[in-house]
Amino acid sequence: MEKETDWNALFSDHPIFSLPKGVAESAGKNETSLELSLGSLPEFTEVDPEHDGPTPSGRRQVMIIKDAELIVAAGNEIRMASLLDSKLGRPVRKSYKILHTPNIQFEIHQLALSPHGKLLAVAGASQVAVVVLPRAGFTKLVPSTIDCKTIQVGQFYHAVDTSAPVAKIEWHPWGEGGTTLMVMTTDGKLREYDMSVDSEEPQQTLFFVPDKKKNSFIAEDESEREVVSFTLGKGRADWGPLSIYAITRSGDIYAICPYMPKNASIPLAYVHALECFVAAKQEFLARSPEEGTSSNGLENMYEYQHKYVAALVKQLPSDDAHPEASRFILMHPPSIMKNPPVRQGPFLLQPSPRTLEGSEGGDATDIIYLAFENEAEEAHGDMERLGVLLTSFQDGRVDVYLDLEKVEARWEHKHDPDSDLPMLAVYETVDLGIVSSLSKIPRSESDPSFLELLRGNHPVLFSDPIHDDTVYVHHAFGVHALQLGPLLRSLVQVLRGGSDNNQDDNAIGLSAQDCKPTVVQLILNTLSIERKCSSPVVGLSIPNDIYLTYSLFILTSAMCITVFPLNLRSETPYSISSELPLVPENTPSKLQSSSATPPTPAYISLLTQDTYVIPSALAQSATSLISRLPPSPSQGEFVLTPDTMRYLGTVVEKFGTKLHEIAVAHRGTEMRAAIQRQEFARQREKCKEMLEIVSRLKGPRHAATQEKLKNIESVQKKLMGRLDRVLQLLIQKASPDLSENETRWFNELKRMKEEVVGRSKYDDRSLVARSKLLRREVDRLLPQLKELKGKERERKRRLAEDREALGVSQAFELGKRSNAERVRINSIEDEILNLAARLDVTLGRPPSSQSQSLDP
């Protein structure tokens, strides 16, 4: 088995994780200036966009992994390094390339990679830019700096003094060409930029916070008007993919539906599924006997939804008789809807989430929407995808909500009455243990509470790209992993059991009480109780290429990297059918009895599992039975009295009882010894059998197994070759012609071949012909150069000998005389030139000027 790469050892002294220039070059600053403590708390809470420093305040994500390339932001500098060389164990020097981006003159807070991996979105406190990443193979370039095209995004909205801070940036997965960038600012405005169309003006703008009304005396909390994060909804045959959720600092959740990019690439199967979903809603409403205002409101809403979906269906191509379900179609938001989508919310949280013990509550920091696929249920089509919303708070609280009432499309309309607020079912409140960890730090009575550090905490939720049921939370005090798998399995069992057995609400409620909670695991703790500070986590990433590695890369504010290897799990669907066998309804089930009966062990001992205890009759001393003789009335002699007779009778009775107990204990001890002797003999026989089995396994069985493994390996190689041939035949039958990418690739290879070899045999512009010509010229000039080199060496040798022949005084006098003669020659040349000018005679250049021009 291949040995796992030790990434911690490879990154121990890698220069890509050096401190930013602003910290490394400043006097008096070091890694401690980036740590969170009571002294540095103001730098984490008071954000100044004009003088944004390296202190990791607010949302931070400064490290991502693109295929096998590591991208790290340090200050306003973007660094890239290849992980593939380290993975393959190549002896290369640890280095990195700097992306030359002169337009980025701000501290980088967030990085976001486009879906196709060619564009990198960069966000600071309030500014946003997009960098075009270099192609693969950039590490082979000689210069340490690579020029990259940088595009400023929305300078009028994000690059002025009055710009609102950037809360979050994210690429829309359904944007055409992967160029749709969404920028959420804290004032509640979500702007959509299409980098292929216009990077200055947004294509669309959504408003999650309405403008303040003038002359209004209603008191509003500022935290209710500050948006801190957003997330995209998910779904398969509902309005989930066209929904977007946002959370404010106070914890209020809002949603807008429908929303799709101006230039969207939507799966064809989803459009047809949404059409069936809306038609089923209308049909159900038509069959419902209820009438009234609510029924009329639903009828109007479904009518608008039908118009919206019909406008989407009209954009589908009509030339395909049997289109592929996975095909993506270019679409635009229907213009038939004149009114904008209405903001829905705030969501009602039922029941109310509980607060953590010892905490006064904290501001919300992030939100994420998760949808869990079920292959078995997808095949039957009888269950919807289970949606879960997670929100994080400063005090380490993570609320888990179940999206039972999915958000539907709504538009602002005067005939549409004010509907009820949407609802989220609160499943549980997860405690990351941050409050309890801070409470353990010792402090004096005069020092402030260390719970004040929570104001500088900003937890960020990160979903695992491989497993949908795993979410990581990185914050100022470390990293936690949330395993939602047990929760989902129990919920699916309850929902499936209720739908199959037609249980009532009370039975389903009792079953839901037995559901398992979220499993919380501490991955990394950066809080130092001795130093009373913490190094916040500013970057967390997992490679999307499992052939490279499946590990968790964690980067702290002090540019310290830590890598934790993760384990791949088998994809088991969350259904009862995958855990329990199917039993006919008329057949009595034995699942309960079989699950309660433990498996039979391979060896059953004659002895009980309890430890043998010595009987009390043998352990107790006999002297404890004899009590004191009652005192005699006369001190001198022994007198037999009634008390003495009673005493003797009692002692005799106790001795008799004790003798009987000792006899019974003796028989029990002998039986125990006999059983132990039998058990010892049985164990010796069993050990003998085990030794014989081990000898057989080491001898002929081992050789037979090795031979079988070799046969299996040879058959496997044959099967792999056969599989390759079958796959090639299937590819040729499925697409006999080359695809567009393959045609483009072969054309590029042909062009490179013509450039290297030439179009014909006598093409003198090819690289091969030019290299041969260069070689001939080198061979022709090389003898002359060697001859000149020898003459130069001989000249230097003679000059050195001449210098050695003259003394210091002689050389000084010779130089003095030479300078005098040179001055005299120059004066004579000047007189001759003046005389020639008077006589109008043309002369050549004097010898002195000719010699100067020849000198190097």
Task: Write a brief structural summary.
It holds the Pfam family Nup88. With 856 residues, the protein is α+β, with helices and mostly antiparallel strands. Helix content is 35%, strand content 19%.
Silhouette? extended
Which class of secondary structure composition applies to the elements? alpha+beta
Beta content? 15-25%
Number of helices: 19
CATH topology of the domain at 7-45 and 60-213 and 221-263 and 332-565 and 574-578: Methylamine Dehydrogenase, Chain H
N-to-C terminal Cα separation, in Å? 66 Å
Helix content: 25-40%
The CATH first-level class of the domain at 7-45 and 60-213 and 221-263 and 332-565 and 574-578 comes to: Mainly Beta
Mean pLDDT value: 81
What spatial order of strands do you see in the largest sheet?
1-2-3-4-8
| The CATH homology group name of the domain at 7-45 and 60-213 and 221-263 and 332-565 and 574-578 | YVTN repeat-like/Quinoprotein amine dehydrogenase
Radius of gyration over all CA atoms, rounded: 42 Å
Low-confidence stretches: 375-383, 573-597
Main location: nucleus
Keywords: mRNA transport, Nuclear pore complex, Nucleus, Protein transport, Translocation, Transport
GO molecular function: structural constituent of nuclear pore
Subcellular location: Nucleus, Nuclear pore complex
Description:
This protein has 856 residues and is α+β, with helices and mostly antiparallel strands. Among the domains are: 7-45 and 60-213 and 221-263 and 332-565 and 574-578, YVTN repeat-like/Quinoprotein amine dehydrogenase (Methylamine Dehydrogenase, Chain H, 7 Propeller); 786-849, no CATH class. The strands form nine sheets. A five-stranded mixed sheet has the order 1-2-3-4-8. A five-stranded mixed sheet has the order 20-24-23-22-21, with no helix packed on it. A four-stranded antiparallel sheet has the order 5-6-7-9, with no helix packed on it. β11 and β12 form a beta hairpin. The two termini are 66 Å apart.
